[in-house]
Structure formats: C-alpha cells, structure tokens
Amino acid sequence: MSEDERYRTSSQYRLWSYSPKSLLSLRTMTNSTAADRVREAIQRAREARALSSNEASEAENGRSGSKVPEGEIDCLTVEEELKLVTFYCRQTLQLGKHLNVPTDVQATAVQYIKRFYITNSLMTYHPTTILKTALFFATKTENHYTRLTKFADSIGDTKPEDVLASEFLLTQGLRFTFDVRHPFRALEGAVTELQAVSLRDNISILPGTIVPDEGKPHNMENRIKVAHGLAREYLKTSALLSDVYFHFTPSQIMMASLMIADKELLSWYIASKYPSGGTEGQEMAEKILNTLEKCAELLRAVEPSVNASAEERKECQKLAKKLKRCQNPEKVDLVALQRAKREGDEVEDEKVIKKRKLEREKGAKEGEDLFGPEIKKS
What we know:
The protein has 378 residues and is an all-alpha fold. It contains 19 helices and no strands. Helix 15 crosses helix 17.
C-alpha cells in the first residue's frame, strides 16, 4: 500500500476533507442555526427574569410575552466567527508555548478547535473554555502525559473541572476521531533527501529519482537550511491557522511551504522526480506545481506568526465584545451544566434502584400468594 493509499484510509481524509464551497456551506449553516437558538435562548432568559422580578409594567404592555425582534440581537456573521477562531487559535499556540508542550501537541489542539467550530458556533460555546480543553486533550492523544492539576495550575485562574467540563462536547464535535496527520515529518524527509542530493551528482537517492545537472540550484546546502527554517515556520503557524488541512494532504502542505521558502529549489526538486524530455512527466510536474501554488496562496494569506498584528488584535477585541452580547445564556457555564446533569443522573439512578426494589418485593409477594406461605421448621 502506497503512502497516498494509506492516507485515504485515514479519518482526516474521509471525514475532514472539504472543498472550499462545501466547507463554507457547513459553516454558514452552523452560524445560522446558532443565531436562531441564541435569539430564542435570550428571549427565554428575558422572560424568566421579567417574571422573577415581577415587572408589572412589562407584563401590562405585553412585552414579556412577545418575541424579541430578529434585528434586536446582533449575532456574529460567518466571517466574524472565522476571525475570532483564528485569533483564539493563536492564543492556543501561545498557551502551548507557555506550558512548554511539543509542537505536535500545539498543532493537534489547534486542529481540534478548527474542526469543532465547523459544526459548533462560538455563540454557543465560548472558545476560551474550548481551547483549554483542546490543548489538554491533545496532550493525551499525542502521548505527552500531563497531570490535570498541574495543567490547570500552570494556566492560572483555572480549575481542573473547568478543563474537563467541555471534554465530552469536544469529542462529540470531533466525531470521536482524534488522529491528525501533520506535515512536519514530511518536511524533515524532504529536507534530508535534498541534503543528500546536494552532496552527490547524478546519483538517484530514491527509486525513480533523477538528479538533473542542468538547472541545479547554486549553493544548495545553505539554501536548503534557510528554506527548511522558513518552511517550518509556515507549517507551525500559517498552515495551522488557515484552512489548508481541510483542502490538501500533509505532503502537499509541506511542499507548498517549501515553495514559499524557495520556489526555485522546490521546482528543481519536483523536476528531479520525472525523466527529462517526457511529455507525461512534464504534465504531471506542472499539475503538481499548480496544486502547490493554490495551497501556497492560502498559506501566504496568514501571517506566519504566533502573535496577532495590532490591527487584527484591535478588530478581534471589538468582535469579542459583540460575542459577549450574543452568547447563548444557557451554555455559558459548562461546569454548572455538567454538575446539574451529573446530579440529575444520580437522582435518576436512585429512582431506578427504588423501582427495581419494589418490583422484587412485589414478585416475592406474588410468589407467596401462589405457593402459600413459607413452611417454618418446628
């Protein structure tokens, strides 16, 4: 089985690969549904508050029983939600650096957040809660053991129950698929091969690889080091913050980052994979380069930095205030919701136990009626 065939069996390809159009459609549907539910939830909260405070004037005017006009609650748009998701993903990367967790853990946590908010809205579940849970959950799926209490204490102003409150919600949003394929290893493999090629002339490093003499980039050893560092920065930031994981394979993302770092070097690398003079090989190389260019466009659109620009930070601060005004009041305190559910389950368990006890007593009594009382030994 080839690497491509193996990737096509992964949950990332089967469940988390979208065309740009289908991804936008899903996000639009999620945003629209959440906005309707937010308006309904805020209306219920206002009605409950009006009843509890005995606002007679509102009751007389009939306002407490009427629905809130749709334009009264200004909900986030799809574009605004995406900007906030990107902003909070940057914060997740910053938190990961603060906690000194590996790059793979940070990258997986960011992809969990982006996947979660395809079918869930920020207006329903606030990202400050979800990002802590996503980062802690990623330490488990990436085999980087971290004690929950230590994790919560390191964040500050966070209790262990705050981290666990949204864990099941997160796993539901991820459709219980936790595998994330990253392009980091692919980059190391490509760089190793390029380094080997730079030290040898006319030697095939891999089966089917031909090293062309003409057009070979000058000063390759140094250029490979520079390209490696720059490409890795794009993979650690822009690739995670953009939507490339939903549209391209890890190897395509890796090569697109190399294209941004050194296009001539990447073009030579692609050309070395196909025999010169073959029409079919040239067409395939052009097709690959066109696909990589599309991926590179998405990577270039996001600044390769963990920190947001001053302009982006200012805009997101305004959007955060807007989010606070249109947050679903019934989903704000996830810790309280989980506690109420747990207590409700316990009450339900007690009812079930009591019911079974009564059934056993009833069955025993019916048995006595059928066979008569128990014969006592004299």
